[in-house]
């Protein structure tokens, strides 16, 4: 999420790739150019909103600050009305504008972060773990609010998370990542029903299910260190279907079925070999 917004801080850096938004290639923009794009065209609801809110500024001032940073001298009354409208959009009382972050519940803070993110009506909203550390009731309210805002703005949402159940309910397409690389990409229902990458298959089979009895199936081994990744495919030390080629080269993400992409050498050997994998 931070890389998409060009917010990676040193010593972190973006090694390569492309981030395209309509006619813009975001990674080629200067900081000043990117600053004009943030919030107005692509916006972020950060993970751990409490850490992104200024503890000594009132909520309304923080929302207004986002607007003022991008628009020249907006009228004060108009600005206050926009703040009230944004709070109403995320189902918060206008009186919330006078409150400080520490006076809000976790769900309210999340919705304040949402109001800041959509203040300039962006085309793309990145929601980074928007329901982390929240109970299921608050999770539902936050997600309902997010997708109502999405429809109101006619925006695209990139939802980042590790809750596969939430993803199954909320997204149309899903990308599964392992060790910082995309392992598989496709429509969420077909991906969960018939995974095309060994990691995705083992991940899905490790999820709790009311239909399955017995011991949970875990994934043997540990994730690799990103400081010293293994050669070739990053999943090969844990993969039950590893081949010699898996340690020789990193597999590229390629289309292996209709609307489905996977980064796995098994597909070069034939799809049937993968389909006879972990069961």
List the helices and strands and how they pair.
Layout lengths: L19 E2 L2 E2 L5 H7 L4 E4 L3 H4 L6 H10 L7 H14 L16 H12 L6 E5 L7 H18 L2 E5 L3 H7 L2 E6 L2 E7 H6 L4 H8 L48 E4 L2 E3 L8 H5 L4
Parallel strand pairs: 3-4, 4-5
Antiparallel strand pairs: 1-2, 6-7, 7-9, 8-9
Helix pairs in contact: 3-4, 4-5, 5-6
Treating each run of at least 4 consecutive H or I residues as one helix, how many helices? 10
> What's the order of the H and E elements?
EEHEHHHHEHEHEEHHEEH
Main CATH class of the largest domain: Alpha Beta
Helix fraction? Answer: 25-40%
Name the strands of the widest sheet in spatial order: 6-7-9-8
Total discrete domains: 2
Distance between the termini: 33 Å
What would you say the CATH architecture of the largest domain is?
3-Layer(aba) Sandwich
Question: How much strand?
Answer: 5-15%
What's the total number of strands? 9
Main sheet record: 4 strands, antiparallel
Low-confidence stretches: none
Q: Assign an overall shape.
A: globular
What multimeric state do the chains show?
single chain
Question: Please, could you describe this protein's structure?
Answer:
The protein is α/β, with parallel strands linked by helices. The protein folds into two domains: 20-170, P-loop containing nucleotide triphosphate hydrolases (Rossmann fold), CATH 3.40.50.300; 173-210 and 219-275, no CATH class. It has ten helices and nine strands. The chain has helices at residues 31-37, 49-52, 59-68, 76-89, 106-117, 136-153, 164-170, 188-193, 198-205, 271-275, and strands spanning 20-21, 24-25, 42-45, 124-128, 156-160, 173-178, 181-187, 254-257, 260-262. The strands form three sheets. The chain has a four-stranded antiparallel beta sheet with strand order 6-7-9-8. A three-stranded parallel beta sheet has the order 3-4-5. Helix 3 (59-68) crosses helix 4 and helix 5 packs parallel to helix 6. The chain is globular and about 65 Å long.
């Amino acid at each position: 999420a931070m890389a998409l917004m060009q917010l990676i801080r040193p010593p972190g850096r973006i090694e390569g790739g492309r981030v395209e938004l309509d006619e813009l290639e975001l990674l080629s923009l200067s900081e000043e150019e990117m600053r004009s794009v943030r919030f107005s065209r692509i916006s972020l609801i950060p993970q751990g909103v409490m850490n992104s809110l200024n503890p000594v500024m009132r909520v309304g001032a923080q929302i207004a600050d986002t607007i003022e940073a991008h628009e020249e001298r907006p009228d004060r009354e108009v600005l206050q009305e926009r703040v009230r409208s944004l709070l109403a959009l995320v189902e918060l009382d206008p009186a919330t504008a006078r409150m400080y972050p520490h006076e809000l519940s976790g769900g309210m803070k999340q919705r304040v972060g949402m109001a800041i993110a959509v203040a300039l009506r962006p085309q793309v909203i990145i929601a980074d773990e928007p329901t982390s550390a929240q109970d299921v009731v608050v999770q539902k309210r936050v997600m309902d609010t997010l997708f109502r805002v999405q429809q109101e703005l006619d925006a695209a949402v990139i939802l980042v998370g590790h809750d596969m159940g939430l993803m199954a309910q909320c997204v149309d397409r899903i990308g599964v990542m392992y060790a910082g690389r995309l392992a598989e990409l496709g429509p969420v229902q077909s991906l969960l029903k018939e995974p095309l990458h060994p990691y995705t298959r083992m991940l899905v089979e490790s999820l709790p299910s009311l239909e399955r009895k017995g011991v949970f199936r875990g994934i043997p081994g540990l994730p690799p260190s990103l400081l010293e990744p293994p050669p070739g495919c990053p999943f090969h030390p844990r993969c039950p279907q590893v081949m010699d080629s898996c340690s020789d080269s990193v597999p590229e993400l390629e289309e292996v079925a209709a609307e489905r992409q996977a980064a796995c050498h098994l597909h070069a050997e034939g799809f049937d070999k993968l389909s006879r994998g972990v069961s």
